[in-house]
Design brief:
Pfam families: 4HBT (PF03061)
Family: Belongs to the 4-hydroxybenzoyl-CoA thioesterase family.
CATH superfamily: Hotdog Thioesterase
Mean pLDDT: 96
Keywords: Hydrolase
Number of strands: 5
Strand content: 35-45%
Helix content: 10-25%
Shape: elongated
Oligomer: single chain
Largest sheet: 5 strands, antiparallel
Structural class: alpha+beta
Number of helices: 3
Order of helices and strands: EHHEEEEH
InterPro entries: 4-hydroxybenzoyl-CoA_TE, HotDog_dom_sf, Thioestr_dom, Tol-Pal_acyl-CoA_thioesterase, YbgC/YbaW
Low-confidence stretches: none
CATH class: Alpha Beta
Protein name: Tol-pal system-associated acyl-CoA thioesterase
CATH topology: Thiol Ester Dehydrase, Chain A
Radius of gyration: 15 Å
Length: 129
């Protein structure tokens, strides 16, 4: 399943040249991941409160292909590549009018309250597959 999140580029997202500052793509895809897991039925706050588990980015591979600019309407596409015991790998892409601007592979780790790797509960793994 691919999740799509639409968003608009605001002035605060851009640099002095009027293009999206590179680090803001990471913010955009963070929103995409959050909405993806919410759409799959995973309540991250409840997961933290009940199981003491949170998701943390462990690794990102990013390709910046073309610039987005002020007032552009973007679409963030998020999909699961794999789900392991304590790891989730996602593919994310940002498009403007069908043109791919940014692509990333993101590895998330499930962590317990001590910051150590934690096994994802079986029901969460099923929701994410």
């Amino acid at each position: 399943m691919t999740h799509r999140l639409r968003l608009r580029v605001y002035y605060e997202d851009t640099d002095a040249a009027g293009i999206v500052y590179y680090a803001n793509y990471l913010r955009f895809i963070e929103r995409g991941r959050t909405e993806f897991v919410r759409a799959r039925g995973v309540d991250q706050r409840a997961l933290r409160e009940a199981e003491g588990i949170v998701f943390a980015v462990r690794h990102v591979e990013a390709d910046y292909l073309a610039p987005a600019r002020l007032d552009d309407e973007l679409e963030v596409e998020t999909s699961i590549e794999s789900v392991g015991g304590a790891r989730i790998t996602m593919r994310q892409e940002v498009f403007r009018d069908g043109q791919k601007l940014f692509s990333a592979r993101v590895v998330l780790a499930a962590l317990n309250e001590a910051g150590q790797a934690a096994r994802l509960p079986a029901n969460i793994r099923l929701l994410l597959h």
